[in-house]
Amino acid sequence: MRKGWFKVLVAGLAVAVMACPAFAADTIKFGVAGAHSGDLASYGLPSANAAKLVAKMVNAKGGVLGKQVEVIPQDDQCKPELATNAATKLVSDGAVVVLGHICSGATKAALPIYKEANIVLMSPSATNPALTQSGDYPNFFRTIASDDQQARLGVDFTIDKLGKKKIAVLHDKGDYGKGYAEYAKQFIEEGGKGTVVLFEGVTPGAVDYSAVVQKIRNSGAEAVMFGGYHPEASKIVQQLRKKRMDLPFVSDDGVKDDTFIKVAGKDAEGVYASSSRDVSSLPLYKEAIEAHVKEFGAEPGAFYKEAYAASLALLNAIEKAGSTDSAKIMNALRTEFVETSVGKIKFDKRGDAEGVGFSMYQVKNGKYVELK
Amino acid sequence: MQGLKKSILVSLWFMFLTFPLMVIRIDSLNGTIDWRWENMLGMGAGSFVLSFVWRFMMARKEAGRAAAAGGVMSARGAWFERLRSDPKAAVPALAVILAVFLVLPWLVSTYQTNIMISALLYVMLGLGLNIVVGLSGQLVLGYVAFYAVGAYSYAILNSNFGLGFWSVLPIGGAMAALFGILLGFPVLRLRGDYLAIVTLGFGEIIRLVLENWSDFSQGPSGIANIDRPGLFGTQLSVSDATTYIYYLILAAVIVTIVAVTRLKNSRIGRAWQALREDEIACQAMGIDITTTKLTAFALGACWAGFAGVIFAAKTTFINPASFTFLESAMVLAMVVLGGMGSVIGVSVGALVLILLPEYLRAFSEYRMLIFGATMVLMMVFRPQGLVSPGRTKYNVPDAEGAGAAAARPAAGGNA
Amino acid sequence: MSATTGNAATPVNSASGTAAVLDVRSISMNFGGLRALNEVDLQVRLGEIVALIGPNGAGKTTFFNCITGIYVPTEGTVHVTPRDGRTVTVNGLKASQVTELGMSRTFQNIRLFPTMSVLENVMIGRHCRTRAGILGALLRDSRTRAEEQRIVEESYALLKSVNLHQHYKDQARNLPYGAQRRLEIARALATDPFLLCLDEPAAGMNPQETHELKELVIEIRERHQLSVLLIEHDMSMVMSLSDRIYVMEYGSKIAEGTPEEVSKNPRVIKAYLGEESHA
Amino acid sequence: MDWQYFWELFFGGLTRGSIYALIALGYTMVYGIIELINFAHGEVYMLGAFTALIVAGALGIYGFPALAILIIAAVVAVIYCAAYGLTLEKIAYKPLRDAQRLSPLISAIGMSIFLQNYVILAQTSDFMPFPNLVPQPEFLEPIAHIMGASEVLIIVTSAVAMAALTLFIKYTRMGKAMRATAQNRKMAMLLGIDADKVISLTFVIGSSLAAVGGVLIASHVGQVNFAIGFIAGIKAFTAAVLGGIGSIPGAMLGGLVLGWCESFATGYISSDYEDALAFALLVLILIFRPSGILGKAKTQKV
C-alpha cells in the first residue's frame, strides 16, 4: 500500500507546512488574493508585489500597532472555484484584512466567505458595479472606480464632447464588456439626448467581423461604444477602417492598453478609451513606481497603483482604528482620508473610493494621451 | 548503429521543425530579432534521447502485444490482479484507503480539504462519463454541459425560489438526465466521430445560452450567493461547512463507485458493453439499442448533474466560464488515462490529474503541455489506460469449481 | 429454455404437416437503383432444417438481413409464428424486436463481443428474456440476484452444450476460429429462439469441424425444438443436413425442394452447381 | 428590402465562408482517407499563421517589400505546416491505425492541446499584430466599403485551391491512389498502392492548405494568438460536415453556406447566438442528412 503511505506522508507534510505560520511571532496578517499563476497572472502579480513593498516600508517604520505586517499571498487564477479555496485558506490562516481579489467573478465567489468571517476585503481591480451597489457586502471596498462610472463617462463624452446622437453599443459578451455596454445603453436612454441605434455582442475569437461592421453602417450610427478588451476592439476598429468607416470609437479600460495600439497599428489613431485618472504627478505614485523598479528591476504591471493605494489605505485604517477589529477598521476606512498613490481618498458607505475616477484618453501618434 | 543514425535524423528533423517558433522571437517594438539558439540545442538533444525512448517503448508495445496474444500476463499486472481479485488482500487495502480519506479533513488544513473536494468532484464526473464513454462506448465531448445543467439548476432554484441543497440535488440530477435524453434522441443514429462532434456542439450551445440569456442565467456575470448545504437547519462556519461538504462528496463518491460497479456488472451494464463492442450484433441479440443508449446517456448525465449541484453549493458562485470545452476534455482525459471502463482506473486518473498539478506548482507553465502530450502518448502506448477494467467473476455451477464457488458471494463482481 | 426441455422430438420428415413458423411472401429489397432481392418466397415449418444456397452475391445475406430486421424490405411481407401460436408481421420491426419474438441469428463474418468473456457473450443473449432494470442493478435485491445467477447458470449450460465451458473466462477474441463459430451459435440459442438463422456457419472450417458442426445443429434442433434456416456453401453439409433447400440467383429464387429434387433441377445445375454437380 | 445592405452581408459571408472552406479542405481530405477527425488541424492553421508572422517580422526588419514578404512568408509557412502535418501523422495517428476508433480522436485532442501550449511556451500567449501583407490596389478602392484586397485574395485562393484539388484527385495517378485508399485501404494495398505514402501526402496537402489559410486570414484579421485554431477548426469542421465530409466541392459549399448563415443571421437578427447557430446547424444536418449536402450515404456492411 505505497499509495496510502504516500498520502499520509503528504498530509503530514502539509500539516507541518501549514502549521508553521500559526506559531510564528504575533503579526498583522495581510492576505493578498488574486491570479498569481495561469493566463491572468499578469493582472494579479503586480498586486502581490505592491502589498509586499508597502508591508516592507511599513515594517521598516515599526509596523502597524507595533506589530510587523506579514503578507500572505494566495493564488486563485481568477477562477471562482479556486477563489473560494484561497479565501478559505486566508480565513483559516487568520488574515486581518485581505487585498484582492483581482477578477470580479472570483471576488463575487469569495466575498461570502470573508463576510461570514468578518474580514475586510479591498480589491484594486474588481470593477463590477454590483459588488458595492448591491449592498450585500459591507466588508467590501475598492480603490478603482466601478464600470458604471466608466460607462457614464463614455456616454457623456460621446454625446456632449463629440456631439454624437446615434450610438452603436457593442460588447464582447464577457462579464466586463457586457456590463459596460448595458450601463452605457441605460445611460444613453435615460439621458434622452442620444439614441442607441444598435446593441450587439460580438463573438470573441471569430474569424471575421464584417457582418457586424456592415450592421453598424446600416444602423446609421454616428459613433461606436465598445465594452470589452483590446483583441476584439482592434479587430473591430481595423475592419471599420478597412470598410472606410471613420466613426469615433469610444471604449473602456480593457482597451486602454499599449497592446491595442501595437496590434491595431495606424488604425488605432483617434480611438478613445477611458481609464483611471492620470496620477503620474503624485509624489506617492512616483514613490511607488520607484520602489518597484528598485526591488524588482522592472516597471510594474496592471493595477499596481491601485493595489499600492489599497495596501496603504488598509494598513492606515488598522493603525487609525487602533485594533484589528473589523468594525473599527471599516469605520476608519469610511471616515479617515488617506494619501495614496491614486490620490487622497476615503471610502463611501458602499465601499467605493471617493476621489478616484476616470479620464478619457485618445490615441495620438501611437500613444494614449489624457484628454483634459 | 542503425538506431543511432535514426535518432540523429529525428533530432535534425525536430531542430528544423521547431526552428522558427523556438529560436526566433521578434521584438517588433524595437525592431530586433532575439535569436535563441540554446533552444535549438535543447530541442536537438531532447529529441535525440526521446527518439530512443520512443523506439524502446514501441518495441515493448509490440512485444507486449505478442505476449498477450500468447496468453502471457506480465508480472507487474499479475500482482495487481491478485490484489484486486483476492478478497484477503483487497478488503484491507480498501479499508486503509477509506480510513485515510475519512480522517483526511482532521489531518490537513481547510485549504487542502477544499482541494480534495475538487478532486473528488472530478472523480464523480469521471465515473459518470465512464458510464457513457467507457462502458457504452459513446464518445461524448460535451459532458460538462450536464455538469452545468446541474449547477445552474441549483443556482437558479436557490436564488429565485430559495430551494435548499437537499431538495435540489435530485432535481438537478433529473434535469441533467432529461438533457441527456434530449441530446440522446437526435444523436441515436450517429456513431463515433460524428457523435463526438455533435456532443461537443451541444456542450458549446449550452454554454453559449448560459452566457447570452442574461434574464435567465444572469449571463457572463454568473450567479453569486448560492447557499451551502445545510445540516439540519444549522448555519455552519466556513471551515465546518468545508468539512461537511468534504464528507458529503466523499459519501457521494462512494455511492457513485458502488452504483457504477453494480451497474457495470448488471444486465444493463452488460448491454452497454455489448453496445460498445458491436452495435449490430447487440441489436441482433435482442437488445433495444435506443433504450440502452438513452439509459447510458441519462445515467451519465444524471451523475454530472449531481456533481454540478454539489459544485454550485461548494463554490457558492458559478458562471459559464467554469463549463468550457477544456473542462470536458479534462474529464475525458481522466477516463482515458485511468482506463476506460475501469472504476478504479477512472478514480485514480481523476485524483492524479487534479492533485498532481496542485502539488507540482513548479511545473504549472508546462501543465497543459504535459497534459496534451500525455493524452497522445497514452493512446499510442497504453490505450487501455493505467488500469484495465477488472473481469467480473461469476459463480458457475460446475463440479470442479463448485466448492470454491459456494464460498464466494453470488455473482459478486469487482471493479 | 424452460419451454424446450421436453424431448419429444419432431420427426424430421413430418414437416409438411405442420404450420410454417416463418412465412416470407415475395419480398424485394432495393438499394438505390440496385435490386438485391426480387420477390422471394420462403417458408420454414416447425422443426425443419431449411437451407438457402446460391452463388456469391445471390442475395442470401441480404435476405437474412431483411427477415431479421436489420434492413426493412422494400416490398413484401414476413410473418412469423412463435411458439405461442399467434402470427406476427415482422417487416418494419427493429432487429431487437425480431429477436425478442424468437428469431435469432449468427453472422457470416463472426460478430462476437470481442473483449467480453465467453460466458458474458452468452449472457448477453439472455438479455431479452430477463427483466432486471436500473433500480434492480443499483439495489441488487434478492430477485435481481436470483435472476442474475439464473442467467449465469443457463448461459453456462449452453456453453457446455457447445463444449466451450472450459473457456468461459477467456476473452471471446482469443478463441480459435471454430470455437468462435460455436460460441455465436450458443449466444443465439440463449435468446430462446424458435427459429435459428445460421449465416455460413461452416465457413473456414476443416472437414472434421464441419462434421461436428453438422452433428451439433441436429442435436440443437432436437434439444431445443426449433427450426433452422441456414445459408451454406458446403454442399455435402447442406445435402445431408437439410430437409428442404431454396436456391437463389441474382436476387431471385430459382428453385426449391428436397435435396434430391434440387440437385436434379437443371436450372440449379446450370446456375449454381455447374461442374460441381457430380459431388 | 435594402439590397445594398443585403449585398454587403452577402460578400461578408462569402469571405467568411471562403475562410472556412480553405481550412475545411484539409479536414475533409484527411477524413476521406482515414476517417479521422484531425482535431489538431486548426492548430496547424495557427502554426502556419505564427510561422508566417515570424518570417514576416524578420523580413520586415530587413526591409523587404510587402509583396515579397507575403510570398516568402507564405512559402515558408507552407513548408513548415507540411512538415508539422507529416510529423503529427507519424507520432499521433500512424501508431494508432489499427486501434479502436476512439483512440485516434483522443490522441488528436491531446495533440491540439499540446500544440497550443507549445506555441504559448515557445512564443507568447498574447495577441500579436500581424502585418497587412496584401497591398490594396487602386482599382479596388470603389468597392473598398464592401471588399478589400485581402478578402478578394481569400475568395480567389480558396476557389482555386478547390478546383486544383478536384482536378488533382480526379486525374493524377496519386489522386487515383488516394481515392482507392479512401474506398478500401486493404484492397488498395493489395493492388500495390503504398497506403502510408498516400496518407502522408494527404496530411501534407491538407496542412499546406491550412498554412495558406493561416497567412491570408491572419493578414486579413490583423492579429494572431495561440487560440485562433480552435474556433476556426471547429467551424471549418462544421463546414466540411455540412457539405458532405470527404467531398472536396462539398467543403467549399459547406463553408459558404455556413459563412452566409452566420453573416445574414448577424445582419438581420443578432450576433448573440452566432456560434450557437453554427453548432445548431451542424446538429440538424447530422440528424437529418448525416452525409451532408454533397456527401453520399454509406450503407453499413453486415
Characterize the structure shown.
The complex is a heterotetramer of chains A (372), B (415), C (279) and D (302). Chain A is an alpha/beta fold and 372 residues long. Chain A is built from 13 helices and 15 strands. In chain A, the strands form three sheets. A seven-stranded mixed sheet of chain A has the order 7-6-8-9-10-14-15, with helices on both faces. Residues 71-75 and 401-415 of chain B have low confidence and may be disordered. Chain B is mainly α and 415 residues long. Chain B folds into two domains: 2-69; 80-381, no CATH class. Chain B is globular, with a radius of gyration of 24 Å. Chain C has 279 residues and is α/β, with parallel strands linked by helices. Helices cover 36% and strands 22% of the residues of chain C. Chain C has helices at residues 60-67, 95-101, 118-125, 134-139, 142-161, 177-189, 207-224, 235-241, 259-264, 266-273, and strands spanning 20-31, 34-45, 49-53, 75-80, 88-89, 103-105, 195-199, 227-231, 244-249, 252-257. In chain C, strand 1 (20-31) and strand 2 form a beta hairpin. In chain D, strands 1-2 form a two-stranded antiparallel sheet. In chain D, helix 2 packs across helix 9 and helix 10 (248-268) crosses helix 11. Chain D is globular and about 60 Å long. The mean pLDDT of chain D is 85. The chains are: A alpha/beta (372), B mainly alpha (415), C alpha/beta (279), D mainly alpha (302). Chains in contact: A-B, A-D, B-C, B-D, C-D.
- Determine Rg of chain D (CA atoms, Å): 19 Å
Give unreliable regions of chain A as ranges: 1-6, 12-24
Shape of chain D: globular
Strand content of chain A: 15-25%
- How does the major sheet of chain D shape up? 2 strands, antiparallel
How many β-strand stretches of chain A?
A: 15
> How many extended strands of chain D?
2
Order of helices and strands of chain D: HHHHEHHHHEHHH
Q: Indicate the mean pLDDT of chain D.
A: 85
From the structure above, extract its key features.
heterotetramer; B: 415 residues; mainly alpha; 2 domains; two-stranded antiparallel ribbon; 2 strands; 2% strand; globular; disordered C terminus; D: 302 residues; ABC transporter involved in vitamin B12 uptake, BtuC
Topology:
The complex is a heterotetramer of chains A (372), B (415), C (279) and D (302).
Chain A: H1 2-23, E1 27-34, H2 41-60, E2 68-75, H3 80-93, E3 97-99, H4 104-117, E4 120-123, H5 130-133, E5 140-142, H6 147-161, E6 166-171, H7 175-191, E7 195-201, H8 210-219, E8 223-227, H9 230-242, E9 249-251, H10 258-264, E10 272-276, H11 283-296, H12 304-321, H13 326-335, E11 338-340, E12 343-347, E13 353-354, E14 358-364, E15 367-371
Parallel strand pairs in A: 1-2, 1-3, 3-4, 4-5, 6-7, 6-8, 8-9, 9-10
Antiparallel strand pairs in A: 10-14, 11-12, 12-13, 14-15
Helix pairs in contact in A: 2-12, 3-4, 6-7, 9-10, 12-13
Chain B: H1 2-17, H2 19-23, E1 24-27, E2 32-35, H3 37-69, H4 75-85, H5 87-107, H6 110-135, H7 144-161, H8 165-184, H9 192-212, H10 214-217, H11 238-264, H12 267-277, H13 279-284, H14 289-315, H15 325-338, H16 343-359, H17 367-381, H18 399-407
Antiparallel strand pairs in B: 1-2
Chain D: H1 3-34, H2 41-61, H3 66-93, H4 102-122, E1 128-129, H5 149-171, H6 173-183, H7 185-190, H8 195-221, E2 223-224, H9 228-243, H10 248-268, H11 274-288
Helix pairs in contact in D: 1-5, 1-8, 1-9, 1-10, 2-3, 2-4, 2-8, 2-9, 3-8, 5-6, 5-8, 6-8, 9-10, 9-11, 10-11
